[in-house]
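Lecture 7, part 2: worked example. A protein chain together with zinc ion.
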Amino acid sequence: MQERGPAVEIEITLQPHGGIRGRCSQCRRPAPGYDRLPERRWQFVPLWGIATGLRYAPRRVQCPEHGVVVEHLPWSDGKRPLTCALMGFLARWGRRLSWRETARVFQTSWESVYRSVEWFVQWGLAERQLAGVESLGVDEIHWGHGLGAANFLTVIYQIDGHCRRLLWVGQRRTEATLRRGLKALGPEVVKGLRFVCSDMWRPYLRVLAAEAGQALHVLDRFHITMHLNQAVDQVRRAESARLRAASQAAAQQLKHTRWTLLRRGSRVRGRARQKLQALLASKLQTARAWELKETFGHFWKYRSVTWAGAFLDYWTWRAMRSRLQPMQKVARMLRSHEELILNWFRAQGEISTGPVEGLNNKIRVVTRRSYGFRTYKAMEIALYHTLGRLPEPESAHKFC
Ligand SMILES: [Zn+2]
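Predicted complex, written out as structure tokens:
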């Protein structure tokens, strides 16, 4: 043990085994020795909370196939100053704690944690299996503060019953982005798809039709519900502003109703329920918009495509007559995508909308932590790390 200023450090010096030849770092085959390089230092997993390092002067070997190369070092990967054991250790903790906390707890830098997670993720991406992917969910996610093109991400999920995970993430939400993502998954995956699930975002619809035409394309329930909720909220906000301009008393009726209105009717209880009843009894536009949204809930209960289609016609007809612009807009959107929406019933039982919603929520948890990620790249790595369900390198230092 060595004193270095105020910090104590354990240093372990390694020697090569005299009787065992070094292995070529390219092919891992034993090869005759050539010379030795200067000593290098690697950071190891801290022992008893004390920073620990390995020292070793790597040998060079003369491989018959690869010439003079550095020997294979089982604890090291390339020129990285951290041992694989430490990188795996930090990466695993970096999934439980924020990267900053991980760095603080284990007396290392944020950069080291970032590089460790990056190494871990790259290993996992290279090793993961994509065989058997049958259902994809494609979605757009907003992140950061602005509303520029760079503030959107395209994400591709696997949403099969037996495996739900993030497969790919890329910046922007253009046709080019999605094409890039599908290309990264490879033609075998894309050709093997049976179901794809997405929002009504036109660039996605186009690319999916062109690239995965054999798969049944489903517009999922989660997104349609989201569009309906947004429409109700727009009606409420516009009406609320109008009422406030007219009189305070009338505006009271809409105050604090935002979250109640976004809920499913059967889930509203107590005082919120009373307020909702009073609102529904009123002649307010918000009440009519809410009632339309609530009625649409029946759509998902159909089993037959024909009856669901008939209901959709009826509902959009009512919405178009409602004189509520946001509701009319949703109705037009539903009409123009009727076939894809009805695919939901054609795929019945085979895919569920839960996973897309669940994965979306988890992604938001990670992207909202984005202040901790200094770059887009770092956030991307964090997303694969937490949601990719990637295979992990073996490690003897698995504490979490
Ligand atoms: Zn070799």
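The radius of gyration is 28 Å. The chain has 16 helices and twelve strands. Keep this in mind for problem set question 3.
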